[in-house]
């Protein structure tokens, strides 16, 4: 009797000690375990699809939900609810119209140029139903970039929203000469060769099309989403059915349910809104509130009106919300979770202090990338969490990066050098069967430029994310900075090469070096250009403004100009950006002439100390 009691006491003491030890040494063990098991369960389902060649796409899941919950609101837009049945039947109508009035066939690519609205989804699903891949075009980009987008993804058909049809002005003739068939979401068109959709909807059948095997391979491209990548004009990131399905599991992995109301204020042409937002809503069988355009003043009103429980964000969005005037209703809402990326530590704390203890779930991953981090713990300031199991499944490394030379450091054998825990390094993700890299459409060279080979051993291959990260002893991963020729502003990636090429067209500019600088109180980096003026010319702020306003979207326009006599170069003859980035735009510490964009005067004007101080105080809008 006494022996058994002693044995039980010893076992209990051992369990208690193990529990205490786990709490001290491995405080996140159980949360990591349950989260990983959940994610792995979803992943196993996708692997079964591949093994059985039994493809279940996001579209298949939508059709399944439309049959299961036909009368449940799928999308709420501008006060009107569109049920799963509504969107299913309307997409069928569009599919019949395309099938009967075009030469589109399975495998063709169609470009979609539309702002957020329910018909964006209906056209997207309709084209998928007839076996087409769809290229989502950014409605902010200008004609030169739009034409490039068609070439890179091989699209021969364009569907354009009624409210963005004016973007075609000036290059519609070029599209038609290139045999691009243009369809407008209108009832009539002034141009005889522009086809119209809305006049054909009423007469179209809403019945499902005859069963078409959209794909037999889960790795087949289904979408092309344009990203700046690291250099040059926009690149068409290839999105396979596999990637779409992975992204659609995001809300579910973080604890989303079919009862959630999801607020999507981000543009659908970005992967966050389309793949995670819409795909995630479909996977759950939930309802989303789709906003045409983000409005900081209407955000919480919408959340209260529609009983929103989850919202999507980028870091800049949360900062805008924190900058709104405080009200007594700030914590009166049902929002429990935010899912997004790019949330700064200071904004994160301010946001939760002001609007309540909302769980902020950071997700790290580029549109075209093969790696994803998820901060399921909710630790402030981290983009994700890793552990030994995760590293077994997804191979990644942080390597030392020389900021002066703008390249990874190499050892005596020519291989990259790993950083230690707590040190900042360039994030590389291994290309493997479990983590394939689909790259970009249109050119193998673009995809190859994103891959680093012979990184640690001969023959290996890693995707260069272009991001500097740090991983601490507990496995939390923090974003530090971007390298190369891309920076982020207003929630958009800005490719410095594209901006450089645009500024290079100005007659008084001889050489340009574009980079991003930090602005206190703002997320990301604002565009700045170091410029050398041609001999015999003078700087013309109005002419430069006209050029950038005409050819660049608002987020890509350089806010600051720095005039230089000599452009600093690296030892490998690349333009030196490091010192320029470090010196910023403070006129008191830079002897060279500085200018700032002025939208009221429609010019670049001298950046004086008083203007600089007004920017720091947040009085001058950027």
Describe this structure in words.
The chain has 622 residues and is α/β, with parallel strands linked by helices. The chain has three domains: 55-361, 3-Layer(aba) Sandwich (Rossmann fold); 384-482, Luciferase, domain 3; 486-616, 2-Layer Sandwich (GMP Synthetase, Chain A, domain 3), CATH 3.30.300.30. 33% of the residues lie in helices and 23% in strands. The protein is built from 19 helices and 30 strands. β18 (401-402) and β19 form a beta hairpin. The relative contact order is 0.08.
Key attributes of the depicted protein:
Luciferase, domain 3; GMP Synthetase, Chain A, domain 3; 3 domains; long-chain fatty acid-CoA ligase activity; eight-stranded mixed beta sheet; transmembrane; 622 residues; transport; globular; 33% helix; seven-stranded mixed beta sheet; Rossmann fold; alpha/beta; 30 strands
Helix content: 25-40%
Spatial separation of the terminal alpha carbons: 79 Å
CATH class of the largest domain, anyone?
Alpha Beta
Task: Based on the coordinates given, report the CATH architecture of the largest domain.
Answer: 3-Layer(aba) Sandwich
Shape: globular
Report the oligomer. single chain
Helix/strand/pairing class, anyone? alpha/beta
Residue-averaged pLDDT:
87
User: Strand order across the biggest sheet?
Assistant: 2-1-11-10-12-13-14-15
- Record field, number of beta strands: 30
How large is the radius of gyration?
Answer: 26 Å
Break the fold down into its secondary structure elements and pairings:
Blueprint: H1 2-25, H2 29-52, H3 58-68, E1 73-77, E2 80-83, H4 84-101, E3 109-113, H5 118-129, E4 133-136, H6 143-153, E5 157-160, H7 172-177, E6 181-184, E7 194-196, E8 221-227, E9 235-240, H8 241-248, H9 250-253, E10 261-264, H10 271-284, E11 287-290, H11 299-306, E12 310-314, H12 315-322, E13 337-341, H13 345-355, E14 359-364, E15 373-374, E16 384-385, H14 388-393, E17 396-399, E18 401-402, E19 407-408, E20 424-430, H15 444-449, E21 451-453, E22 461-471, E23 476-482, E24 486-489, E25 492-495, H16 496-503, E26 509-517, E27 526-533, H17 541-551, E28 560-563, H18 578-583, E29 594-598, E30 603-606, H19 609-616
Parallel strand pairs: 1-11, 3-4, 3-5, 4-8, 5-6, 6-7, 10-11, 10-12, 12-13, 13-14, 27-28
Antiparallel strand pairs: 1-2, 8-9, 14-15, 16-23, 17-20, 18-19, 20-22, 21-22, 22-23, 24-25, 26-27, 28-29, 29-30
Helix pairs in contact: 3-4, 4-5, 8-10, 12-13
InterPro entries: AMP-bd_C, AMP-bd_C_sf, AMP-binding_CS, AMP-dep_synth/lig_dom, ANL_N_sf
Membrane topology: Multi-pass membrane protein
Subcellular location: Cell membrane
